Amino acid sequence: MSLRLQPPLPPVPDDTARVARAAFRRGNPYLLLRDRLGAVFADTDFADLYPTLGQPAYAPWRLALVTLMQFREGLSDRQAAEAVRGRIDWKYLLALDLADAGFDHSVLCEFRGRLLGGNVAERLLARVLDAAREGGLLKARGRQRTDSTHVLAAVRDLNRLELLGETLRATLNAVAVAAPGWLRTVAPPEWHERYDRRVEDMRLPDVGPKRDAYAVQVGEDGFRLLNALDGAGVPAGVRDLPAVAVLRRVWARHFERIEAGPRDGETGGGQASGDRVRLRPVQGRGSGDRVESPYDTEARFRSKAGTDWTGYVVHFTETCDVDAPRLIVHADTTPANVHEAMRTGSIHDALTAKGLAPSEHLADAGYVSGSHIVAARECHRIDLVGPARPHQSWQTREEGAFRAANFSVDWERRRVRCPEGHESTTWGEYKDRTSGQSYIRAGFSPAQCRPCPSRSRCTRAASRRLRLLPRPEHEAIAAARARLETKAGRRLYAQRRGIEGTISQGVRAFDLRRARYRGLTKTVLQHVATAAAINLDRLGAWFAERPPAPTRVSRFAALAA
C-alpha cells in the first residue's frame, strides 16, 4: 500500500454535519474535538511509514483517530470498523460522507503493524499533545505528577511444570513451521502424545515421584531436540528461531545434565550417550529476570505491596495545573521487574525532549532519591518533590533510637558529631559494588561508644558506623524531608494524589490492567494509545465545560466536614 498525500485535510461534508448536529443537539465529545482541534493528525505525520508505489492506502490520519477512539471505547478492530460505517459522530470527526463504507477491520491491524515496524507509536500521543499545545491548553514548565500501576501480561500464569512443557511445545510448533520435513525425522512418535495438546489441558501428576519423573522426561526431550539442532543437516535459519533461544534459556535455568550410564535398552538416540537430566533447585518466584511464559518472553514476575503478577508496569505522567485540563504527557512501560527508581531519569529525559519538562514534579518515594533530586535540578531544572526513602536500619523502626538524621555532618572537616557530642574518628569514600553508587562511611571508635549512656539507642555493635551519601545528595534529601514537614510542603505534595484517579480511570474505563497484546513493544503501543485516548476524553470534557467529578466522601466522613 502506498500513501497519496492530499493536503489540505477535507472539511466535514455538509450532509454529515447536518445529521450529526441534529442527532446531538446537546453536544458530543467527537463533534467538539473536531470543531475545536480540527483533525488532530495529518497524513504527513505517517508518510515515512508508507512506500511511494503501490495501491493507495486508506488515509493514515483517519486510522490514527480510529485507533484512539477504539481504545477510548474498548472496541475490537471489527467493532471499530463497524462504528466507522454506522456512527454519525465518528463520521463527523473523520470527515466522511454519510454513505462512506469505511474499510475492512484488518486495515487497523496493518496500521498498528506500520507503527510498530517504524517504532513510532509515540506519535499517537505526541500529536494529541501538539494539538492541545497549539490550542493553549498545554504548557511547559508547569506542575506534573507521576505514578505507576501493574499490568497483567496477555498470557496464562504458569507453574514450573507447565512452563517447561509449554516451552518445549512452543519450540516444536515453531520448528514445525520452519522445517516440517526435518522435524519428522527427529521427533519420535511418543512426542505427539506428550506435546500435541496444551499442557494445561493434560492431567499432570500432582506431587511426588511421578511429577518429578514427568519433569525429567520433558527435560530429556528438550535436550534431545537441542542436540539435534546442534547437529548436522539442520535447515538454514532453524537454529536462530526465537523459540529455540527461549528453549535454551529455560533449560539452562531449570535443568542440568549429569553423567550416568545409558538406560536399559537405550543406545543414545538423538541424545549423547550417557547424557541424563535432573531438575535444578529453584527457590521461589522472586522479581528476577527470567522467562515466565514462552509466548511472552518479555513479561516478568514481580511481588509488590502484597500483589503478585506477571507482566509489566506502566508509568503515567500528567499535568496538574489548575487552569488547564489534566493531560497525560508521557507513558513509560517496562517489564514488571524494573523498579520505579530506575525510571525517574528516563522520564525526565523524555519530557525534556518533548519540550514539556515541568518546573515541579510530584512523585512518591519510589521515584525519589538524593541522586534523582540533584540530577533533576541540575540537568533539567526540575524540582522533584516527594518523600525520600528512609535508611533501612533498626534505628529507623525503633522509637527513640538515634537515626542518621540525628547526627550532624561537618563536610569541611570530614567529621560527624553524634547526639552525645562525640566526633567520628574515621571517614572514607567508597563505591557500592552492585549499584556503583558513591557513598561515605564514617565511624566512631569503640572507646567512645562502649561507655556511652545512650549506646542502646544508637548501636548494637561495638561502635556506630554511618553510611552517608555524597554531600549534594545528602543535603538534597535533608531539604526534601524538611520541606514535607512544613504546611506548604504538605499542601503541595497532596496534589500528587490526583494521579491515582487517572490510574483508576485507566484501569476501570480503559482496560489498562490487562495487556491487549503480547510483548513489550506492542504493550507500549497500547499504553501510548490509551494515554492519548484519555487525553481526547478529557479535552472533550474541557470543551464541554464539564468539571471533573468530585471525590467521593463517605457519609460518616462528611459529618466531620
Structure notes:
The strands form four sheets. Strands 1, 4, 5, 6, 7 and 8 form a six-stranded mixed sheet that branches. Strands 11-12-13 form a three-stranded antiparallel sheet, with no helix packed on it. It has a two-stranded antiparallel sheet with strand order 2-3. It is an alpha+beta fold. The longest helix has 24 residues. It contains 22 helices and 13 strands.
Q: What's the total count of β strands? A: 13
Report the span from N to C terminus.
63 Å
What is the total domain count?
Answer: 4
Mean pLDDT: 91
| CATH architecture type of the largest domain | 2-Layer Sandwich
CATH topology of the largest domain: Nucleotidyltransferase, domain 5
- Fraction of residues in helix: 40-55%
Rg, Cα atoms, Å: 30 Å
Strand content: 5-15%
The main sheet comes to:
6 strands, mixed
Under CATH at level 1, the class of the largest domain stands as Alpha Beta
Instruction: Identify low-pLDDT runs.
Output: 264-274
Shape: flat
Instruction: Assign the structural class, choosing from mainly alpha, mainly beta, alpha/beta, alpha+beta, or little secondary structure.
Output: alpha+beta
Q: Helical stretch count? A: 22
